[in-house]
Amino acid sequence: MTGRRNYNRLFKLITCTLVAFIFYIVASGTENTFAQEYSLDDLYRIALERAEVIKISEEGVYIAERGKDKALSVLLPKLSTFWDYTRYSEAKTTGTWVIQPDYSTSWGLRLDQSMSLSGKELKAFKISKENIEKSGYDLYAVREGYLFSIASAYYDVLRAKKALEIARANMERLIKHRDAAAIRLKVGEVTKTDLLRAEAELSGAQSEMVKAENNLKLAKAVLARIVGIYEEYTLKETPLEEPVYLFLPSLREEARMQRAELKSSELQKKIAEDQVKYAKGAYWPTLCVEGVYSGKDEDPASPFFLKESIYGGLTLNFPFFEGGLRRAEVREAKARQRQSELIYEDLRKTINIEVENAYLDFMTQKGVLKSLEDEVTFARDNYNSISRQYEFGLANSIDVIDANTLLLTSERQLSDAQYNYELAILRVERATGTLLKTVLSKQ
Question: 79-91: per-residue pLDDT in tens?
Answer without folding.
Answer: 999 999 988 888 7
